[in-house]
Amino acid sequence: MEVIYEDNHIIIVSKSSSEIVQGDKTGDTPLSETVKQYIKEAYAKPGNVFLGVVHRLDRPVSGLVLFARTSKALPRLNTMFAGGDVHKTYWAIVPQPSAQASAQLDGQWHTLTHWIVRNEKQNKSYAYDREVPQSKRAILDYRLIASSDRYNLLEVNLHTGRHHQIRCQLAKIGCPIKGDLKYGSKRSNPDGSICLHSRRVEFIHPVSKQPIIAEAPVPDDNLWHALTDSITTQVPHK
């Protein structure tokens, strides 16, 4: 865990792919408890520390997680997330697609719209080109920002927040995320991660009303560094 931004009302940290945001059946210490302990020690706080979880990242995903430090900020952040007022940008490494893939990798922004059905038993989502029973519409924008001989780096902006949305939609167009066996990657990553990174978050502070922009460093990995070092131009968000 690395603290990226903090004030009296919120804290933004960058998590590794090995950390879970909230406790689960594994019994591993969740990121929320690690952040509470950090606050307790950093500010010499007696007793229990308040921390509100407002969103989550899948365990194998790295990058930014935002928490509320006060009961005043928590409901406001929940409303902002529900209303799409928190802009999150992800980076994903995908293999060079096959000839049959429908991905458009010309460096321009492209929009994907699918209807996603979540299978609770499998903990997996399925994307369809048309509306089907129990489906929810999923929309994202993506563009190519860097390439190597074998891999592409995509930037992704979400318009909706469906279960495994980026993983599912990119797999649907023939670009499964590197290491993501569940969605069609041919092999796992040695550390159990998938190459999906919550890179940037932008929003208006729920209390001060000041604009907040935070960015997470990419994982300390040769492929991540090779691809991100080759980015020369940042195109404005869509």
Describe the structure.
With 238 residues, the protein is α+β, with helices and mostly antiparallel strands. Helices cover 16% and strands 33% of the residues. It has 4 helices and 11 strands. It has helices at residues 31-42, 73-82, 165-172, 222-229, and strands at residues 2-6, 10-15, 52-53, 62-68, 87-95, 110-119, 124-128, 136-147, 151-158, 196-204, 211-215. Strands 1, 2, 3, 4, 5, 6, 7, 8, 9, 10 and 11 form an 11-stranded mixed β-sheet that branches. Strand 6 (110-119) and strand 7 form a beta hairpin. The radius of gyration is 18 Å and the shape is globular. The mean pLDDT is 92.
How many helical stretches? 4
For the biggest sheet, the summary is: 11 strands, mixed
* Order of helical and strand elements: EEHEEHEEEEEHEEH
Strand content: 25-35%
Cα gyration radius (Å) = 18 Å
- How many DSSP-defined strands? 11
What is the helix content?
10-25%
**Distance N to C terminus:** 30 Å
Query: What number is the mean pLDDT?
Result: 92
Dominant shape: globular
Secondary structural class: alpha+beta
Poorly predicted sequence stretches spanning 5 or more consecutive residues: none
